[in-house]
Amino acid sequence: MAYSADQAAFQVQERLKALYRLVHDIHDERQQSEHNLNNIEKAHEKISAEERVSPQYQQQLKNLYTAAVADAEREEELIRKALTKVNEIRAIRNERRIQARNAGNKETIRRGALMKMLLSSAQTLPLWVGKPGEKAPPLCGAIPMEASYIAKPGDMVAALVKGAEEEENWILAEVVSYNSTTGRYEVDDIDEEQKDRHVLSRRRVMPLPLMRANPETDHAALFPKNSVVMALYPQTTCFYKALVNALPSSATEEYEVLFDDPSYAEGYSPPLPVAQRYVLAIRDRKGHSHS
């Protein structure tokens, strides 16, 4: 949906107001939850002191645990509503940015600022939080995209492009458009110093993850240790072949990877941190995936 500047500002403000109310509701619900949890703890202390569980205590505990579960479910619902508002705000701001770019008002970003922006983008990528037993969806962490998936304008991708000397490299790029008739993407090099636009077939474009995987709940959505991957080399906008040396142990941590580097005796660089968003399945020069 296209927004004017005033419409976008109004829509963002409305969602911020809703988010403010939800945060207060979450706080109130958490206080109620803590009250019930304290009562459960006190009940267990009494049972321990008496060294027996009477039918009265059994019923009391059952009621308290039922209430605690209901509290947790209400809190979860409120948090998910709040996250939805955050994602809606992100989508509106991204839409305005794309409109500005299409109108020729693309802001020039200096190298240092670009690197900070890429890091922030990776750190604030939405975290997948599924319900019990629910598997992580495509484009969450290491989960590949569905075969029919088409990246949207504004999405970040890895793109296999030819350089000045005809060498081919995977670069970080932003989708401008997709032509369903020709099956080709139009993408912009994210590096402001290049300012190149490329028209590429689908096999030369790899969408970046849309969500982070939580290592504590969705370990299967991460690349295993010793996996060969493509990773964004720190402080650059290019992807290179690397080996996963260590997995993130929490939602805020990064992978530790070893980049192919013949200048070292082992053939690999020292361990370097790379965010989940910038670690992808390895592809060859023709754009074919490999495990």
Characterization of the model:
By secondary structure, this protein is α+β, with helices and mostly antiparallel strands. The model has no long low-confidence stretch (mean pLDDT 88). It has helices at 5-50, 55-102, 111-123; strands at residues 156-162, 168-179, 184-189, 197-201, 205-207, 228-232, 238-246, 255-259, 272-274, 279-281. The protein is globular, with a radius of gyration of 24 Å. The longest helix is centred in the N-terminal third of the chain and has 48 residues, at 55-102. Residues 147-288 form the SGF29 C-terminal domain. It is found in: Nucleus. This is SAGA-associated factor 29.
Major pleated sheet: 10 strands, antiparallel
* Shape by Cα distribution: globular
Helix content: 25-40%
Task: Count helical runs.
Answer: 3
Residue share in β-strands: 15-25%
Radius of gyration, in angstroms, nearest whole number? 24 Å
Structural class: alpha+beta
Please write the string of helix (H) and strand (E) elements.
Answer: HHHEEEEEEEEEE
Distance between the termini: 38 Å
pLDDT averaged over residues? 88
How many beta-strand runs? 10
Low-confidence segments, given as residue ranges, are none
In brief:
This protein is α+β, with helices and mostly antiparallel strands and 291 residues long. Helices cover 37% and strands 20% of the residues.
List the helices and strands and how they pair.
Layout (H helix, E strand, L loop, with lengths): L4 H46 L4 H48 L8 H13 L32 E7 L5 E12 L4 E6 L7 E5 L3 E3 L20 E5 L5 E9 L8 E5 L12 E3 L4 E3 L10
Helix pairs in contact: 1-2
